[in-house]
Amino acid sequence: MVFDIISAVPELLESPFSHSILKRAVKNNLITINIIDIRQYGIGPHKQIDDYQYGGGAGMVLMAEPLKNCIEDLLASHKYDEIIFMTPDGDTFNQQQANQLSLSDRLMIILGHYKGIDQRIRDKYITKEISIGDYVLSGGELPAAVIVDSISRLIPGVLNDATSALTDSHQDNLLAPPVYTRPSVIDDMEVPEVLLSGNDKRIEEWRYQQSLLKTKMKRPDLYDKNKES
After folding, report:
1. Do 16 and 42 lie in a common domain?
2. Do 41 and 148 lie in a common domain?
3. pLDDT tens, residue by residue, 43-53
4. Helix or strand or coil: residue 85?
5. Together in a domain, 130 and 177
6. I want to staple 207 with a disulfide (CB 3.0 to 4.6 A). Which of 101, 177, 193, 227 is the partner?
7. pTM for the whole structure
8. Cα–Cα distance for residue pair 187/176, rounded to 1 Å
9. Separation between Cα atoms, residue 110 and residue 107, nearest integer Å
10. pLDDT in tens, 81-98
């Protein structure tokens, strides 16, 4: 899968994509992450990319022209499954969206900064608007890193164990069960006996029941949704 990410502050994305699972996924050619600096398309000798908003008000807006030229350049060379804009007023991102987007071949992700982007860009080009929560950040770079990570780990081969992502929290509207590792006893706290039994059927049932209990206690909304499905 290819991610083409348009950013006003590309440096903010260097660290999230340079370590751990995503770094290995890029190295193994399982994903490609292209970060495009919108300032390359800036206007005039100072490469201006933002301006005051019409009607007054605090905060700068990313200009339409640089974004338009960048998007058109990308569309001339590539076909996209979705053109995504990261914005606090978008649809709240969840595991189901991650699952769906992981089936894509190529995604364009546009990141706002300051007070966002000119509305005309949203009206003409954007096919999906995504928020990672009901709060505001300084720009879309960190939210983009979140969704790229979430999507990428679902791509076959990215995780060492192909079944790992299928047992994560929020798959099937359930939270993941408790997990334990060695030693089996620490400060008089013991690992549940069933996990040491070697009985795969009992372990699977225990984990399912623990997922149900945890979801009911911590996320009753998900628990009710699971019962309905």
Report:
1. yes
2. yes
3. 999 999 999 99
4. strand
5. no
6. 177
7. 0.88
8. 24
9. 10
10. 999 999 999 999 999 999
Q: What range does the domain containing 201 cover? A: 169-228
DSSP letters spanning 163-214: TTGGGSTTGGG-PPPP---S-SEETTEE--GGGGS--HHHHHHHHHHHHHHH
Residue 102 neighbours by CB distance under 10 Å = 17
- As given in the structure block, the two tokens for residue 215 are 């979801």
SS3 at position 9: coil
Residues 214 and 140 in one domain: no
For 132-181, how does the pLDDT look when each residue is reduced to its tens digit (9 = 90+)? 999 999 999 999 999 999 999 999 999 987 556 656 656 678 898 999 99
User: Where residue 7 falls among pLDDT bands split at 50, 70, 90?
Assistant: very high
- Within 10 angstroms of residue 40's Cβ, the number of other Cβ atoms is 12
- The Cα 181–Cα 127 span in angstroms is 44
140's CB contacts (< 8 A; 6+ apart) are 7, 85, 86, 87, 109, 110, 111, 112, 113
Q: Which tokens go with 104?
A: 């894509």
Burial class (CB in 10 A: 0-12, 13-18, 19+), 105: exposed
